[in-house]
């Protein structure tokens, strides 16, 4: 078993190394599969009444228009509330400073806050060159992102138009004895990946709408941009959406005071409960059969390995791998939890059998 584990670890390390060498290509192909999974139902629907290439073009155009419309709405809402928001933030910051000086369990004076600000300004002046270099690198990253999006769109067009023929061609290149296993593994993996992708999109949109309704009722400024932030955060399981809502709490605290911030916090908890107990089982079903503990470990591992990108892609990749493994393996027997002894009852404190 040790030798087998070493071989598995070496294979995983090789995959990670190869992926790191062609990271942009991997991201583009991953995004192409995401676009394919999301748009395929629309393409199949349009293909009933028009040629498939035209159906693919129409579905892609519709997705782009929806995305641009959402971004336009966010921009308009920010522009319309900016002047009012600046005044509210000024009053809110004054209230927070007053609370820290007089009402908080610990005292923070205005002089201390000004000193922190001055220290921050000094640090920026001292590290201006490094920040400029990072900004230039960020500009290069924007070019890479646009390149990845262009390649992903290009590949998605062919996946949507002739994906079945491409998969059949790949299977034809394999030895006949191995084709069935690859066919089963590919079908199971795509079923899980497409189900997860569409499911997380539905959950993200639902979280964004619920956040927008909650923030609008409470009267938190920039409800639309914050709702979009929640929508984006939902693509990081367990932690993304709550982290985005915490930002909304900070905005509510600065603009409207602690009571509204507390109400937003309660709303965060309610939305999280609704997602975990209603949306996840209803939308995902059995397509992503991963325990929450596994998801938490996978998200943390992905974050440590590849940052935010790793946190986003880790869960679907592990879900696909587990689905393929479960589909191909033939277990001899299952262990009943009732037959497993409690270690605390099996041995006493001195290590002797009780």
Query: What's the count of strands?
Result: 0
Count of discrete alpha- or pi-helical segments spanning 4 or more residues: 11
Task: Report mean pLDDT, rounded to a whole number.
Answer: 77
Q: Which shape, going by the Cα principal axes?
A: globular
User: What structural category arises from helix and sheet content?
Assistant: mainly alpha
Helix/strand order: HHHHHHHHHHH
Ends distance: 31 Å
Q: Could you name the ranges where pLDDT drops below 50 across 5 or more consecutive residues?
A: none
**How many whole angstroms does the radius of gyration measure?**
26 Å
| Helical amount | over 70%
Q: For the report, how would you describe the main beta sheet?
A: none
Strand content is under 5%
InterPro entries: AI-2E-like (IPR002549)
Subcellular location: Cell membrane
Region (Disordered): 331-354
Protein name: AI-2E family transporter
Describe the structure.
There is one protein chain. This protein has 354 residues and is mainly alpha-helical. It has a domain at 19-127 and 134-173. The chain is built from eleven helices and no strands. Helix 6 (176-218) runs antiparallel to helix 7 (223-233) and helix 6 packs antiparallel against helix 9 (258-284). The model has no long low-confidence stretch (mean pLDDT 77).
Blueprint (SSEs and pairs):
Layout: H1 2-21, H2 23-46, H3 52-103, H4 110-126, H5 128-172, H6 176-218, H7 223-233, H8 240-256, H9 258-284, H10 292-328, H11 343-346
Helix pairs in contact: 2-3, 2-5, 2-6, 3-7, 3-8, 6-7, 6-9, 6-10, 7-8, 8-9
